[in-house]
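Example 198.
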Amino acid sequence: MGEASAGASSPKKRLGILISGRGSNMASLVEAAAAPDCPYTVALVASDKPEAAGLAWAAERGVPTFAQSPKGMPKAEYEAKIDAALRAAGVEAIALAGYMRLLSDDFVARWRGRIVNIHPSLLPKYKGLDTHARAIAAGDAEAGASVHIVTEELDGGEVLGQARVPILPGDTADSLAARVLAEEHKLYAKTLADWLRD
Ligand code: GAR
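Predicted structure in complex with glycinamide ribonucleotide:
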């Protein structure tokens, strides 16, 4: 599968991006894909929330989108629909970008080694939620974000890249989140590209 890129020796990888909301990391990945030497093309943006703002953003730019709410169905059935949409789009690797739903072990196994996630902490610190508030409460001098391989362990797979920012006096979880997010946008596109080139 894969579309040839002008002048490049290997075909572009077909990337699926899963989101749940705003989608600013997804947008940074879509924008980075416009570069001729980018090793991926965005084949599908999918969401568990049909109303996710990121879905509309992607659709407006001509990126194929798919929405499936998990409400009213077993998790396995919901994930089978996501899986089918990804495969129908010829997706070869998946980037989670603010996708706030735990993937089942079965789904992770079917895409073993081909799913990455961005998490707003310096892993292995602060897996899970409320990462920025926890970093401030702990008195940490710095915070950041990590891109990692997704395994069955929550936020536990191999870390591929990190970005660091200082925690400043007076920082709130929101002000720190905004500073980290700006770094996330640079980190994700670069780390993903390096990983896919390997
Ligand atoms: C980002 O900060 C991302 O790191 C975080 O959610 C935000 C999504 O923003 N992800 C997680 O917390 C995953 N556990 P975005 O929708 O604008 O990319």
